[in-house]
Amino acid sequence: MRVLLVEDDTMIGKAVLEVLRSEHYAVDWVRDGSAADAALLAEQYDLVLLDLGLPKADGLQVLRSLRARRSPVPVLVATARDAIGDRVAGLDAGADDYIVKPYDTDELLARVRALLRRSAGRGEPVISHMGLELNPATREARLNGQPLNLSPREWVLLEPMLQRPGVVFSRAQLEQKLYGWKDEISSNAVEVYVHGLRKKLGPDFIRTVRGLGYVVPRE
C-alpha cells in the first residue's frame, strides 16, 4: 500500500515515516501544501496522512482541492488542532478520520489499517482467497492453514491483488505499490517478486495476462 505523508515537522515526519515503512508501506513524504497538491495530482495513493498547519497551503485547502477533484482516496488528518470546531471542519472538508497530536503510533497504525480495509470494502481484517489468508493487522499469512513466510515486498505486492481478485494490475501499478516515487526501481523487480510468490503459492495463483499485467484469478 502506498501512503502520502504530509507533515512539515521534521522530527514527527521522520518518526512516522520510519513507523509506516516498518509496516511495509511505500511512503512518500512531502512537507508543505503545494508539494502535497503536486504529489496528489501526479501519483496514485491508497491513503493520505495529512497535517493541517502546513506552509504554502493549509491542509484543509489541500483536502478541499482533493475532494473537489472527486478523489476517493482515504484521508487521515493528523494534527495538533484539537478543538471540536477544528475536527468538525476537517471531517466536513472530506477527511475520513481525525487523530490529534501527540498520538500513539499503535493507534495511528490501527486507524490506517481500518481506513484501508474500509476503502477496499472489507469490514474484517483477514483477507481470504483460494486457501490463502492474510491478516494485515498482525502481518501473518497462512496457506491452507499453515504459516507462510512472505517477505515485506512480496506482501506489499500480493495484498492489493488478493483484495481484488479478477482485476488485472499492470507492472507500473505494482511498481507504485513496491516503491516510493523517488526510489530507484529495478527493471525486473515485479517479475522477481511474482516469481518468488509463485514458488510459495503455486504457479497458477498469480497469472500473467500478456501485454497487460498480472491477476489473481477469481475462484
TrEMBL record:
Residues 2-116 form the Response regulatory domain. The modification 4-aspartylphosphate is found at D51. PROSITE patterns: OMPR_PHOB (PS51755), RESPONSE_REGULATORY (PS50110). Keywords: DNA-binding, Phosphoprotein, Transcription, Transcription regulation, Two-component regulatory system. InterPro entries: CheY-like_superfamily, OmpR/PhoB-type_DNA-bd, Sig_transdc_resp-reg_receiver, WalR-like, WH-like_DNA-bd_sf. CDD domains: REC_OmpR_PmrA-like, trans_reg_C. One of its GO terms (cellular component) is cytosol. Pfam families: Response_reg, Trans_reg_C. GO terms for molecular function: phosphorelay response regulator activity; transcription cis-regulatory region binding. GO terms for biological process: regulation of DNA-templated transcription. Residues 124-218 form the OmpR/PhoB-type domain. Residues 124-218 bind DNA. It comes from the Bacteria. This is Response regulator transcription factor.
